[in-house]
């Protein structure tokens, strides 16, 4: 059934997204026949076919206006803003566009003061956030000036070696320009005077951001022939990540030592499994800190996100002896949104009795239904049970992640699907999918061209049928829809 489906890298042309020259020409002819604007179609394919978008991290100490600036950059009020530190806790990612270029903005947020001191918490937050970023906007309150905490973040930024744009925020008028100029003392180059609240100066700052961000980020994983594939072993604290990695490695590795939560220079580990060398991205377990229970969860999410950004496959470890937690679900969602191949590994399987196994299966159905397509292995890091199943599951997920369906085969499938199960009629209209293409892989990204808005439920139906027909085991699928404008419709 799948003879003409091939993983990327198997000899197909990859110009025009994932389409070869001949396939691209045929596709554009089809688009013209259906009355689509050619530039619009090209833009849709380019937008869907790109690799990961460049990542811009917004960092700084609490209450300097980071979330307000993020809202200004993305052009809508999504990040929660309140006039006190500590409102933003989760690492939140938004998609933004400036001057025709798209990128991701990560709002790292400030964090409330605690017994460890604000310098320590902000430094840790900034360190983990910039690890996965291509460039950084460092926000400083120009009215307050550079503080000792700001100086500590500057040291982290220099150590990271990422391009930095210095944003002097809260400059509401010409009288504040002198305050902004004083921030030259930080040694990060020109401070850009900005009022995130009123929008003053944000355009000049974003122009500089585009200079700092790469046009298209390098694919650092899976690039070289025979190079080791990159695996992130992730999960909430105390689920057995360290034990599992030591078990598969066959020895104690530094990557999971007791200093895991404080590692500043992660070292990836090369481990041979199943006759193949894999590179395990350092996801050292996060220790719970005595005076910072909530903070441990926050740092865990930051570090997990950084590890996932560097990996191709996320092996998500879940403690089978405990109920699936909200944090487990957040980590799964993080990996899905990052577009990584996914394997679910349920640890401590040897400790489960029949009753717990029954209830665990029910929990998996209800709490992890969004990743029902992910390969699953039931393991024991303590005894080594079923460790031999880990590599096949990883290989299955990678194969799904790299799979591409030729446009002709996809459109034959879509034609049959739409004929048998048309979109529901809404408001007296019945939108119809005209044609589509797979614009990219890693993960598979599809663009569908339609006569009207396609509901989320119908998109999920299409995704489910794509999986039934073509596999895609272990990988998220991204589906975007472009609607034909009335003025471009083909006249009959």
From TrEMBL:
- As recorded in Swiss-Prot or TrEMBL, the protein's gene is named der
Record's NCBIfam families? GTPase_EngA, PRK03003.1, small_GTP
One GO BP annotation here? Answer: ribosome biogenesis
GO molecular-function terms, A-Z: GTP binding; ribosome binding
Per the similarity annotation, which family is this? Belongs to the TRAFAC class TrmE-Era-EngA-EngB-Septin-like GTPase superfamily. EngA (Der) GTPase family.
Tell me what organism the protein belongs to. Answer: Streptomyces fumanus
**Quaternary arrangement and interactors, per the entry?**
Associates with the 50S ribosomal subunit.
The reply on keyword Nucleotide-binding is yes
Q: What does this protein do?
A: GTPase that plays an essential role in the late steps of ribosome biogenesis.
In which residues is GTP 2 bound?
235-242, 282-286, 347-350
Q: Which Gene3D superfamilies match?
A: 3.30.300.20, P-loop containing nucleotide triphosphate hydrolases (3.40.50.300)
Q: What is this protein called?
A: GTPase Der
């Amino acid at each position: 059934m799948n003879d003409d489906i091939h993983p990327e890298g198997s000899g197909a042309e990859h110009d025009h997204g994932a389409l070869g020259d001949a396939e691209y020409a045929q596709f554009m002819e089809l688009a013209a026949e259906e009355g689509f604007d050619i530039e619009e179609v090209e833009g849709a394919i380019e937008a869907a076919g790109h690799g990961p978008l460049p990542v811009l991290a917004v960092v700084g100490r609490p209450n300097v206006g980071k979330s307000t600036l993020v809202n200004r950059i993305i052009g809508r009020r999504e990040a929660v803003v309140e006039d006190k530190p500590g409102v933003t806790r989760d690492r939140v990612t938004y998609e933004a566009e400036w001057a025709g270029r798209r990128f991701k903005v990560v709002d790292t947020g400030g964090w409330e003061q605690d017994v460890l001191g604000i310098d320590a918490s902000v430094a840790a937050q900034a360190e983990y956030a910039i690890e996965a970023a291509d460039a950084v906007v460092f926000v400083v309150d120009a009215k307050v000036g550079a503080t000792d905490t700001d100086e500590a973040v500057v040291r982290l930024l220099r150590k990271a070696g990422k391009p930095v744009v210095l944003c002097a925020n809260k400059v509401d008028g010409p009288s504040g320009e002198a305050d902004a100029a004083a921030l030259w003392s930080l040694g990060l180059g020109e401070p850009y005077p900005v009022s995130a609240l009123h929008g003053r100066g944000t355009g000049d700052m974003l122009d500089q951001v585009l200079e700092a961000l790469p046009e298209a980020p390098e694919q650092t994983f899976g690039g070289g022939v025979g190079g080791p594939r990159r695996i992130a072993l992730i999960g909430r604290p105390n689920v057995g990540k360290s034990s599992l990695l030591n078990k598969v490695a066959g020895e104690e590795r530094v990557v999971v030592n007791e200093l895991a939560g404080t590692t500043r220079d992660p070292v990836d580990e090369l481990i041979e499994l199943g006759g193949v060398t894999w590179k395990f991205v350092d996801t050292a377990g996060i220790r719970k800190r005595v005076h910072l229970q909530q903070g441990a969860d926050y740092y865990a999410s930051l570090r997990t996100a950084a590890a996932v950004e560097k990996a191709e496959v996320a092996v998500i470890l879940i403690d089978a002896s405990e109920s699936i937690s909200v944090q487990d679900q957040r980590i799964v969602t993080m990996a899905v949104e990052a577009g990584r191949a996914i394997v679910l590994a349920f640890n401590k399987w040897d400790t489960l009795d029949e009753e717990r196994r029954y209830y665990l299966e029910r929990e998996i159905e209800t709490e992890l239904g969004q990743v029902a397509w992910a390969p699953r292995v039931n393991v024991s890091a303590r005894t080594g049970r079923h460790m031999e199943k880990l590599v096949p599951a990883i290989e299955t997920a990678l194969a799904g992640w790299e799979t591409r369906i030729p446009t002709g085969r996809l459109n034959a499938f879509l034609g049959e699907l739409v004929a048998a199960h048309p979109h529901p009629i809404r408001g007296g209209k019945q939108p119809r999918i005209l044609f589509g293409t797979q614009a990219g892989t890693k993960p598979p990204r599809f663009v569908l061209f339609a006569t009207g808005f396609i509901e989320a439920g119908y998109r999920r139906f299409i995704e489910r049928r794509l999986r039934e027909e073509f596999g895609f085991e272990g990988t998220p699928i991204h589906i975007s829809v472009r609607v034909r404008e009335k003025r471009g419709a083909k006249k009959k």
